[in-house]
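re: ur question from yesterday

yeah so i grabbed the chain u mentioned. its 229 aa long if i counted rite. heres the sequnce exactly as i have it in my notes:
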Amino acid sequence: MRYWIMGGGGIGRALAATCAERGDEVSLFSRTDPGLPGVSWHCLDNTDEAAMTALCNTLPLPERVINTVGTLHSEHHQPEKRIEQLQQDALLEHMRINTWPTLALARLLSARMERRQPLLLTALSARVGSISDNRGGGWYSYRISKAALNMAIKNLGIEWSRRFPAACVAGLHPGTVSTGLSAPFRAGLAHGQMQSPEQAAQHLLTVIDSLTPGQSGRVFAWDGREIIP
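ran it thru and got these structure tokens back, copy pasting raw so excuse formatting
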């Protein structure tokens, strides 16, 4: 199986390593080389659509694409607790990183796919992007960008069902994973609630392996349960 894995964070690296270990052909697209055995690394800023298109168009299409690119906080922005803390540049930055790369990938893939192409495109979403499941409020930029991603996945699933009926697009919620993204927000987690990147990769690949075109446009948690947007 040929994989493109976008993003070199903790989950992206773990997915690439796990796929390589099981004998898949893996290309990892990130800014820095993780030096993983059996993984072909390609230097790429995954938010740069022009660079993504130029690079990916030189490679044969994969059977599976996993977009792991995402942001929750930075040295300039933290998740908002009140509307007064919301800044336009923070919201736009979250949309640029959490939402746009999946749409850019879908656009370049769609331009190259055959009608019966059995391609699977997945992107890491988040349960907090579910409007129906929002009981806590806050985290405006992150929630909004992930909700937009879920809508993009729904839209694309409808379009691909007509244009590419053998293809599938889905969102994946990895749970709480021990990475830099979750580091400031682990206090108070119950025992066993935190997964390592390697555990998350195994769970996510189990879900990915089970996805069919009939499930296109939907979002699933790491344990296989569907999340209603």
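noticed a couple things. The chain has five helices and eight strands. also The helical segments are 10-21, 49-56, 88-112, 140-163, 197-210.
anyway ttyl
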